[in-house]
From TrEMBL:
Residues 384-466 form the DUF7586 domain. This is CubicO group peptidase (Beta-lactamase class C family). Residues 48-353 form the Beta-lactamase-related domain. Residues 487-500 have a biased composition (Polar residues). Residues 1-42, 474-500 are annotated as: Disordered. Residues 9-22 have a biased composition (Low complexity). PANTHER family: D-ALANYL-D-ALANINE CARBOXYPEPTIDASE, D-ALANYL-D-ALANINE-CARBOXYPEPTIDASE/ENDOPEPTIDASE AMPH. Pfam families: Beta-lactamase, DUF7586. The lineage of its organism: Bacteria, Bacillati, Actinomycetota, Actinomycetes, Propionibacteriales. It comes from the Bacteria.
Length: 500
């Protein structure tokens, strides 16, 4: 069994200095070498962390910024065992554990062992909610209750799967499947059992061998390893603390068991931004980051993909997850488009605002060190025939432009107002598959005349021609023989009204 933690110390007044990055940063400057944030930026980041630690009365707080795939800055305030916490200090990460569980399930899908649309009964038979799909469990739309039956699982020793299964009854399904977003820790305990049955080992053993070791997340563990913070509750009306329990969650471990550091989580933030290190297909990760459900609110700000939260923070869309366990709060959030994210770990039951803190850290870096525009260079080659497809196209009178991307994709965008936008990936048979937007999953077929010249594009039966309603393209329903004219079908001016 995992080892128990050692006792921590109540923090004392610190003398502050920023923690150093524990692995090589990869911020690409104009000269091409990786660099950390500039000293003045680091000072502002530390100022924001210090403000959070002081106002939130957090015994120990660490934070880090990931930029372009690696750690660009880290810092800490407070005390752990009498010393300043840094990028190598562990804290419990709570529900950020769910993102790791979701990746394990996604790996099984990519291997063909399961489908997200499969009912649970196909993989873990015998539960009273076996009709709920794996995707519904991952996106918290299964309708299951939030917590397990019995004492609150976060504060009591957890049973293994047989013990948890005995507590499940028909009452745990509180909503119609798919009706609404309802966060369910129980659902992720069940998903951990799906992983265990397919792998023939525990959820933790699968996670360690399939994800943590390949990504070199050596300080992400089931139980704490020194140096680590101890969890505290801070008295609401006095500056004293109370130690919190840190029980083994047992079968509920996939929902919130893990311990980690801001250095390891910065690597996981890079993973969330797309640097999957061969552990998962980037396409699968992109699918997981798509919002499958949103929380009911007058204005959408919080949604959920397959194991990942999708949040609106001002003008940003952030992907990641928050985490809480008794004595600990955590957050990991990434602006995927900017490849910029942050993490924070605090050993307190309340007082830390992970999303607010991380959002501010991201804003500081972007405001003080805006990204240089990428240097343009020509691509070595394009897929055969691509140049025949690029340029303006018309669906009826609506103009769109088709551009060849540097990645070999085609990018369809409207010219002016309206129209539909999608990216397309080439297929071996000469067709293209839509990746996003209205045409996601749809097929683009290239129409050609006998001599091979391109005449039109057929995208899910929508015909795009080189001219508006080109009579040489197979326009559904045909084109009126009168063609483009300033008169209506009766010979009157098309813009006239009765009486003129």
């Amino acid at each position: 069994m995992p080892q128990r933690r050692d006792a921590g110390s109540v923090p004392s007044e610190p003398a502050q200095s920023p923690a150093q990055s524990s692995f090589h940063p990869s911020v690409q400057q104009e000269h091409g070498r990786p660099e950390p944030v500039r000293p003045e930026t680091g000072a502002e980041l530390l100022r924001r962390v210090a403000q959070e630690q002081s106002s939130g009365r957090i015994p120990a707080l660490t934070a880090a910024v990931m930029r372009d795939g690696a750690l660009a800055w880290s810092g800490g305030r407070g005390r752990v065992g009498g010393t300043r916490p840094d990028a190598d200090t562990q804290s419990r990460i709570g529900s950020i554990s769910k993102t790791f569980t979701a990746v394990l399930v996604a790996r099984l899908r990519d291997e063909g062992r399961l489908d997200f649309a499969d009912p649970l009964d196909r993989h873990v038979p015998g539960t009273p909610f076996g009709d709920r799909t794996l995707a519904q469990l991952l996106a918290h739309v299964s309708g299951l209750q939030a917590e397990t039956n019995g004492p609150w699982w976060e504060r009591t020793p957890g049973a293994e799967w047989p013990g948890l299964a005995e507590t499940l009854d028909g009452g745990v399904a509180r909503q119609r499947a798919g009706r609404r977003f309802h966060y369910s820790n129980l659902g992720f305990g069940v998903l951990g059992e799906v992983v265990a049955r397919h792998r023939g080992c525990s959820w933790w053993e699968a996670l360690r061998s399939e994800v943590l070791e390949p990504l070199e997340l050596r300080r992400t563990t089931y139980a704490p390893q020194r140096p680590h913070a101890s969890g505290y509750a801070v008295h609401p009306w006095a500056d004293v603390v109370l130690p919190e329990p840190d029980h083994d969650a047992g079968a509920m471990a996939p929902a919130g068991q893990l311990w980690s550091t801001v250095a390891d989580l910065a690597r996981w933030a890079a993973f969330a931004a797309g640097d999957t290190g061969g552990v998962l297909s980037p396409d699968t990760l992109a699918e997981m980051r798509e919002p499958h459900a949103v929380e009911q609110a007058p204005t959408w700000t919080s949604g959920y993909g397959l194991g990942w939260q999708v949040l609106r923070a001002g003008e940003r869309t952030l992907v990641g997850h928050g985490g809480s366990m008794p004595g600990f709060l955590a957050g990991l959030y990434v602006d995927v488009e900017q490849n910029l994210g942050g993490v924070c770990l605090g050993n307190t039951t309340s007082g830390l605002r992970p999303l607010g803190l991380v959002s501010d850290l991201i804003d500081v870096v972007e405001a003080r060190e805006p990204r240089l525009a990428p240097e343009w260079t020509p691509v070595p080659s394009l897929p055969a025939g691509t140049l025949d497809l690029v340029g303006p196209w018309y669906w009826g009178p609506m103009a769109s432009a088709l551009r060849a991307g540097r990645d070999g994709m085609l990018d369809l965008r409207p010219i002016g107002e309206g129209g539909r936008a999608s990216r397309f990936r080439p297929n071996a048979d000469g067709t293209w598959t839509g990746l996003d937007g209205y045409y996601a999953g749809e097929t683009l077929r290239v129409g050609r005349c006998p001599d091979g010249e391109v005449t039109h594009l057929d995208i899910a039966t929508f015909i795009y021609a080189r001219e508006p309603y080109d009579p040489n393209a197979p326009i559904p329903g045909g084109v009126h023989p009168a063609g483009w004219t300033g008169t209506d079908r009766n010979g009157s001016s098309a813009g006239s009204t009765d009486g003129e």
